[in-house]
Write a structure and sequence with these properties.
The chain is mostly helical. The protein is built from 10 helices and 7 strands. The protein has helices at residues 2-54, 57-83, 105-109, 113-141, 152-179, 182-211, 214-243, 249-260, 294-312, 325-334, and strands spanning 90-91, 94-95, 98-99, 102-103, 267-276, 279-288, 316-323. Residues 111-243 form the Cation efflux protein transmembrane domain.
Length: 335
């Protein structure tokens, strides 16, 4: 019983350390997103003001696009706040069930799915925005010449927005890579679309202002809208696959081969892996020698868990072992 208590305590400590490290990483991502909102609001205010005095529909549309970026970022912040909730007893307002007199550690890990859920919501916003851009651009294309032509103030607004959005993109991409955060990588893809939108607006405004080509505004905006749509669809695909417990089959094959490298493992009969937010967990059924004693089996599963954690950054491995029936049959025939 003492050994069992020590094992459960060690498992609880291990999962608690994983949870604490993940929460710390998400909290850093949360701070980055607040920086995003501040810059997005500044860009929106500058663009909308210069669009008003510069008579540019394209710049005004870009300002509204960036304002929607504030909304999508806010959704991501809500998701991260839920995922990093310090209350260990509740998950989204519901009490976490007890296991062996303590909160279920694996249920607590499931809170990191909120990161993916709100990333999925963000993809819907991006897709909706792209639809608005394409619709408004098509409408303007067939009514070219009705609105005022943009002046040089619109070019100033688009130029400032391009530079600031490039800073936002780099900030999100850099921190997303450093923290391995799918939320910040999704935000970087969104901000990359905004960089393209602002730069396209700048080129369009200058072309219309210098060469009097009113149809170019709408044509370039349609292309930008399609780019934003593609970014939203990619984020939607990744988030949906994550929530559907999809893991790259090639990665799963490499994990199985790593397990089979242990001589005591005869087969990996059942294998299931899934992401909880950015956390990868694995459950599997292995076949071992029928005569293997419990202590040897326990040491084997511990070695497998450490190997997978080091090689593939898998934070939780659940291993069930069964005796190899083929080996029993061989022994019986020998006797």
């Amino acid at each position: 019983m003492n050994n069992l208590a020590q094992y459960l305590k060690r498992e609880h400590t291990h999962l608690s350390e994983i949870e604490a490290a993940e929460i710390k990483r998400l909290q850093h991502a949360l701070k980055s997103l607040w920086v995003n909102i501040g810059i997005y609001l500044a860009i929106t205010a500058i663009e909308y003001w210069l669009a008003s005095i510069g008579h540019s529909q394209a710049l005004r549309a870009d300002a509204m696009n960036n304002l929607s970026g504030v909304m999508s970022t806010f959704f991501l912040i809500v998701g991260l706040h839920t995922a990093t909730d310090s209350d260990d007893h509740f998950l989204v307002g519901k009490r976490i069930p007890l296991l062996n007199g303590r909160n279920d550690d694996r249920m607590q890990l499931s809170r990191f799915r909120m990161e993916t859920i709100f990333t999925l919501i963000t993809s819907f916003i991006i897709i909706f925005i792209s639809g608005q851009i394409i619709y408004q651009s098509l409408y303007a294309l067939f009514t070219a010449g009705i609105s005022h032509h943009p002046n040089i103030y619109s070019a100033y607004g688009a130029g400032i927005a391009t530079v600031l959005m490039a800073v936002v993109w780099w900030w999100n991409w850099h921190n997303g890579k450093r923290l391995k955060s799918s939320v910040l990588m999704a935000a970087s893809k969104d901000s990359m679309g905004d960089v393209a939108t602002s730069f396209g607006t700048l080129v369009t405004v200058l072309a219309v202002f210098l060469f009097d080509i009113p149809w170019l505004d709408s044509t370039v905006s349609i292309i930008i809208g399609l780019f934003v749509l593609w970014s939203g669809l990619v984020i939607f695909q990744e988030s949906t696959l994550n929530l559907a417990d999809y893991v790259d089959p090639d990665l799963e094959d490499r994990i199985k081969k790593a397990v089979l490298n242990f001589g005591e493992v005869h087969q990996v009969r059942e294998f299931r892996s899934r992401y909880i937010g950015d956390v990868l967990v694995v459950e599997m059924l292995i076949m071992v020698d029928a005569d293997m004693d419990v202590m040897h089996l326990y040491e084997l599963t511990e070695r497998i868990e450490k190997r997978l954690e080091q090689q593939f950054q898998i934070v939780d491995v659940i291993t069930q072992a069964v005796p190899d029936p083929g080996e029993d049959a061989t022994k019986s025939s020998d006797e």
